[in-house]
Amino acid sequence: MRIFRGKSVTDGIAAGRLQIYRKEKPRISRETVSDAAGETARFKAAVEEAVLQIEQLKSEALETTGASGGEILEAHRMLLEDEGFKAAVEAEITQNFSNAGYAVEKVSESLQRKFSQVDDAYMRERAADIKDVADRLLEILCRERNAGSRQVFSEPVILAAEDLSPSETIGLPKEKILAFVTVKGSLYSHTAILAKSMNIPALVGAALPLDESLDGKPAVLDGEAGILYVEPDEKTLKELQEHAKQKERMREEINLLRGKENITSGGRKIEIYANIGGAEDLPAVLENDAGGIGLLRSEFLYLGRQDYPSEEEQFSVYKKVAETMAGKPVIIRTLDIGADKQASYLKLQKEENPAMGLRGIRLCLERPEVFKTQLRAIYRASVYGNVAVMYPMIISLKEVQQAKKMAAQVRKELAEEGISCENIRQGIMIETPAAVMISAELAREVDFFSIGTNDLTQYALAADRQNPRLEAFYDKYHPAVFAMIETAVKNAAAAGIPVGICGELGADTALTETFLKMGVTELSVPPGQILLLRKAVRESDLKA
Ligand code: PEP
Ligand code: MG
User: Fold this and answer.
1) Between 20 and 30 A from 133 (CA), which of 124, 190, 424, 543?
2) The domain 36-145 belongs to what CATH superfamily?
């Protein structure tokens, strides 16, 4: 038996064979691009990212393999920055209107051929380096196509990966994944959030060798203890099975709370809603008796694909969610892409600090056509249920006014086309310190607030939620974060609008009473947490 420890994202116990997640080499074909300048910028951004990756690997290699590993990587970096190579790729893009992936492959294959034909053995070896560098670039350029959906899973498995991006996680066949464990990754990333909404046990930060010694081996992942047992012995297996049965009994008890109110013994009520990523989460929402959808992270509809989801595609998802929830609130958050949630067709420029970059509402206001398509789909779906729209990453009143103006324009256009829609509620995420500081003013402009503690914590504490090395600084119990929540709640109450929490902190049952006391009116959590939260509310004796 081998034991590996990691950090627990979700609890639960899963048993099955381990399968190593392999990022597949993307298939490249030639496409004609209309925006050669944009494609060149995408290539340059990929080179920058590859250089950063190599720098990182170099410092790790110097620790583990000494100078020789570092020298190889230094050679790769020099190849990447070689002016001749870059100019040849850029010429292929601008002169022949080729896509960047094809241009990289064409130029690198021609270089490899030249190097493999020379007499000098050392120079012949350089062909392998060129291939390595090109593969790295292609992986970056084709990230979404490479989103995991092509890996075959013949049976449900425990997936072991170096890291999983949100787009890769989205691309996984959920029915085939019992649990996952990653070597890298942080507890507050969107991949961790996705594991919660899939309600499967998951660990991050486990030092696993991703090789044949693990691939295909029977294993048990104990999410609660944060341990992966590979080829567990009889005794351990029996203990884990007993533990799993105990958890099953607890779950059955919790399930008795279905259909019950979220009310304290003192008569104080609160709404408990679900956070979802799309229509595939609806069965879990119904099973766990959610009072509505407090956060539909619409950006997950945009990930793991090669082009924008059309208005029709989005409309059918929003309509399905609204109809399924049958009159219960459904809050659709507009596209919050950027930072760790990337889609190559968006052609976002590489940013030094993507979490503080062009994301969320900033990107939508900069690209009105993208925003408008989504708003049309949301407004069209509004007649099928109780839909509300929510804008992410707000820092100013002006942004809210611009978003509302766009929404009004969309309503007008729909009316002119004879398409009916409702005058739905419009709310905002409070997830930046700026929004907290001007929350009194913002509260007069919108119909509700939803506090995003995940981002609010990273911005308040200047601690990147993606960076596992900053977990000690990303202190979700920091008094500054609580003071900010309290300010936003107070200002919402003064303006007479509801205020919820849809960040991960809302699911922390140790804080439920604190939030109730503050005057939070809604908590929105992953579906699997709803009944546990209901239990905490019902066990409180807080007065009405
Ligand atoms: C948040 O920031 O708390 C939030 C709910 O949004 P996301 O986690 O999707 O950034
Ligand atoms: Mg957020």
Assistant:
1) 190
2) PtsI, HPr-binding domain (1.10.274.10)
